[in-house]
């Protein structure tokens, strides 16, 4: 599942980059004269759902996302807060299995770059496609006891539907983000999980993929 999600994210990213090159001239034609440089404050309120990855606990994850920032032209710098539930599902084939469930709070920042904006002079509406990258610090507390605190990095892409009546900006947004972090050192010795010529410890790379959606407001 994780490999398919990462492949889909990479394919969409390549498509967005291609669209920026192909439609650059069309964007100018649609918008008419070059608009003044954008400067505004932005607020985002939404939800996230996807596959979390905390060491060997790599199943469901869902929660809330908040961010506030400032846009300067094609760049937006923002601070963000995520609060979500992480854990693994109960194994139906094992009635004695106890699911590991926790709550994760994440503080961070991100830099967003607008790849392509499609707008019209006839209607106060636009579509903005963007990429983003950032980092933060997450703290996961488990219901069965224990806390894991660690830094992480995020990479993502998405789009805003921007309605602009009276100089204000609002509308829905959709995004896909990957969270990268380093898991705790696994117990045990180096081994081979398959045919190999050198035993190693399990990888400590944790990669989660989340789908975001919500509303943005700007002025």
Describe this structure in words.
Helix content is about 15%, strand content about 55%. The chain has about 220 residues and is mainly beta. The protein has an eight-stranded antiparallel barrel with strand order 1-2-3-4-5-6-7-8. The longest helix is centred in the first third of the chain and has 30 residues. The chain starts with a helix and ends with a strand. The N terminus is likely disordered.
Principal-axis shape equals elongated
SS summary, helix count = 1
Q: Which blocks of ≥5 consecutive residues have pLDDT under 50?
A: 1-32
**Number of DSSP strand runs:** 8
Write the layout of secondary structure elements.
Blueprint: H1 2-31, E1 39-51, E2 60-72, E3 75-87, E4 101-119, E5 125-142, E6 147-163, E7 169-182, E8 205-218
Antiparallel strand pairs: 1-2, 1-8, 2-3, 3-4, 4-5, 5-6, 6-7, 7-8
Task: Provide a brief overview of the structure.
The protein is mainly β.
Question: Main traits of this protein?
Answer:
219 residues; mainly beta; 1 helix
């Amino acid at each position: 599942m994780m490999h398919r999600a990462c492949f889909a994210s990479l394919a969409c990213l390549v498509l967005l980059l291609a669209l920026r090159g192909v439609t650059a001239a069309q964007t100018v034609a649609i918008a008419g004269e070059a608009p003044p440089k954008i400067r505004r404050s932005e607020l985002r309120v939404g939800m996230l759902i996807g596959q979390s990855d905390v060491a060997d606990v790599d199943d469901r994850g869902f929660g809330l996302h908040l961010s506030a920032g400032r846009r300067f032209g094609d760049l937006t710098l923002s601070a963000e807060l995520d609060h979500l539930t992480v854990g693994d599902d109960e194994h139906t084939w094992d009635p004695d299995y106890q699911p590991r469930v926790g709550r994760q709070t994440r503080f961070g920042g991100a830099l967003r770059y607008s790849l392509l904006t499609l707008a019209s002079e006839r209607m106060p509406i636009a579509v903005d496609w963007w990429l983003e990258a950032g980092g933060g610090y997450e703290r996961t507390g488990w219901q069965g006891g224990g806390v894991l605190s660690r830094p992480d990095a995020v990479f993502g892409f998405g789009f805003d539907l921007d309605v602009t009546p009276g100089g204000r900006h609002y509308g829905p947004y959709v995004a896909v983000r990957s969270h990268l972090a380093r898991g705790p050192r696994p117990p045990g010795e180096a081994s081979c999980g398959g045919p190999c010529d050198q035993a190693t410890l399990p990888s400590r790379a944790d990669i989660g993929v989340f789908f975001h959606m919500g509303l943005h407001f700007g002025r």
